[in-house]
Amino acid sequence: MLNYVLRRVAIAIPTILLLVVISFVLMYAAPGGPFNSDRPLPAQVMANIEARYGLDQPYWKQMTTYIWNVVVHFDFGPSFQYRDRTVNDVIAQGFPVTLTYGFWSFIVALVVGVALGAAAAIRHNSWLDYLAVGISIGAQVLPNFVMAPILVLVFTLWLGWLPGGGWQGGQIEYLILPVIALSTSYMASIARITRSSMLEVLNAGFIRTARAKGLPTSRIIWKHAMKPTMLPVLSYLGPAFVGMITGSVIIDVFFSTGGIGQFFVNSAFNRDYSVIMGITILVGVLTVTFNLVVDLLYAWIDPKIRY
Amino acid sequence: MSLNPDPGTADRLLEAQAAADVKGRSLWKDARQRFMRNRAATAGLVALVLICIFAFFGGFIAQYEPDYVDFSLIGANASQGVPSIETGHYFGTDSSGRDLYARTVQGTRISLLVGIVGAGVAVIVGTLYGAIAGYKGGRTDGAMMRTVDILMSVPYMFVLILMLVIFGRSILMLFIGIGLISWLDMSRIARGQTLTIKGKEFVEAAHATGVRPMTIILRHIVPNLLGLVIVYATLLVPQMIITESFISFLGLGIQEPNTSLGALISNGASNMQYGVIWQLAFPLFFFVVTLFAFFFVGDGLRDALDPKDR
After folding, report:
1. Which residue is closest to B268 within chain A, CA to CA?
2. pLDDT tens digits, A117-160
């Protein structure tokens, strides 16, 4: 087990480093510096600015300094567009918002998805089963950027029940639509995976044995069927996490929630490289860490995974 | 002579009999029959054909060019840009006074192209990469698949947007960016299947007769991967369409005057409070139907071709 953990961590660290290097190289390859504008600055001013941001240093030195600052000090450097704030300020402002609705979306997708899928499998071929299958097929074609306008159209413009955007410190009514829009398609996938996985488990020999010795159904489900059912679900959580953190960009832009996605897209339009890089690296680190945790959980639950 | 007046008929009869007696059902024919029995898949295929006709020939019945701006309609969309047959704006107009029908045709076409090109790259690069890794095995395999693992754990959408920002937003860049990420899943699938094919006798026989490894891969392994590859390519197309639409929804993907379904949905969504619901409804309809069609066809193909589910 320890060996496996070490090996898994040994893959995670170069992944993060690679991501940092790739983003740095990409940024460096960009045609024109971040301060090139239509009206060229005087040479002396340009030199001063470049010295201020360390752009006059040789290439390898810039890269090592950047990596050193990111890895050791968690310092992503200054923003190239806003003189009054650093990339860390941007992240500190936007990340809690993203984390809040992202966390709830994840919980909703997981809990509702597993409950729906398990219920469908237990009541196989009932109306509940058909409903679950219908939802999971329908939600395949409803990614977050389709769900978001539909939800706002129905609940804000037609019914007028919920606000169609804004954050207001994360009050519940501002949270509902983003969470539904972000979680629906993942909820559906989790429901589908849970259903097929549980159907397979319920047909297994050990479940028949449990039934034969007269255990009550609820006990069979919770005690025996749930754990093996969750294995495929668990391995889907990594991709789901990536999908949600990516989808948060849409949520931030569409609902104006003010999370990091909004800064990301604004920076993409302003060519504010350091902010884009900082957010990309942050998201990358989160993803790699999350995948690491999922893999370790998987190895812990399923003793067959040992290498 | 009188017994056999027309040798041609007899020959044809014999041929037909021989075909009925000897010729077993080929795997592909078998798969086609199974596919046709699947009603959802057949409906998906019909829908897909209709959408392709719409996307590639729908422009002929459009009354306006997709980039023609009717300035008199700007600002008067809700009243005068309504979908109608008389004005020739079958789907109404968009917020800049352009014909939404022509725009939707154009957007559907570009979305389909992005999906197909992305899936095409995945098929070629992913299959070869996976087949080579699986066939070589050992250290090569390990290194190649670890690379895929690492690339897969990178949040590609962010890197893709970073690339679009740095190298400029163009269709070509979008194709390159989507092509770069689309083959990863495919290479894993191809590798897994290669590992099982590798142990078969015909590969061993080819190896024993001195066929070079690359020829074995191309001649003996890749054809046997085709079924699986086709299934996953069909399921990849909608994913590529979603990826492209995602980026275009943010305004970072396709640029004016070109458009895609994602860009049209984005436009429709930002104008929906002004009573021009058709600007959202028509692109959304085509987006949803296209995705449904691909998913159903893909599922049908999987049931028909995937040996695991038999």
Report:
1. A149
2. 998 888 888 888 888 888 888 887 888 888 888 888 888 778 87
- How far off is chain A from B151, nearest CA to CA, in Å? 8
pLDDT-based confidence at A106, cuts 50/70/90? very high
Tell which residue, A141, A162, A161, A159, has the closest CA to residue A255: A162
Residues of B in contact with A150 (CB under 8 A): 284
Whole-prediction pTM value?
0.82
The residue of A16, A249, A279, A281 whose CB has the most chain B CBs within 10 angstroms, and thus the best one to mutate to test that interface, is A249
- For residue A109, the model assigns a pLDDT of 92
Integer CA distances (angstroms), B149 to A14, A231, B93, B181, B251, in order: 12, 20, 46, 12, 30
Distance of CA A296 to the CA centre of its chain: 19
- What is the separation, in whole angstroms, between the first and last Cα of chain A? 8
Is the Cα torsion angle A178, A179, A183, A184 positive or negative in sign?
A: negative
Identify whether the C-beta of residue A41 lies closer than 8 Å to the C-beta of residue A49: yes
Exposed, middle or buried, B269 (CB in 10 Å: 0-12/13-18/19+)? Answer: buried
Q: Is A21 on the interface with B (CB under 8 A)?
A: no
Contact A145 B265 (CB under 8 A): yes
Instruction: Answer whether A153 sits within 8 Å of B295, measured CB to CB.
Output: no
Amino acid identity of residue A110, one-letter, is L
What is the Cα–Cα distance from A258 to A244, expressed in whole angstroms? 16
A124 close to A223: Cβ distance less than 8 angstroms: no
Amino acid at B85: I
Number of Cβ within 10 Å of residue A149's Cβ equals 22
Cα A278 off chain centre by: 16
- pLDDT tens column, B244-260: 888 888 888 777 778 88
Residues 6+ away with beta carbon under 8 Å from A212: none
The H helix count followed by the E strand count for chain A is 12, 0
Question: How far is it, in rounded angstroms, from Cα B307 to Cα B287?
Answer: 31
Provide the β-strand partners of residue B93: B99
Predicted ipTM of the assembly: 0.80
**Are A156 and A162 contacting, i.e. CB atoms less than 8 angstroms apart?**
yes
Task: Please provide the size of chain B in residues.
Answer: 310
Q: Two tokens at A203?
A: 């047909």
Give Cβ neighbours of residue A25 (< 8 Å, ≥ 6 apart).
none
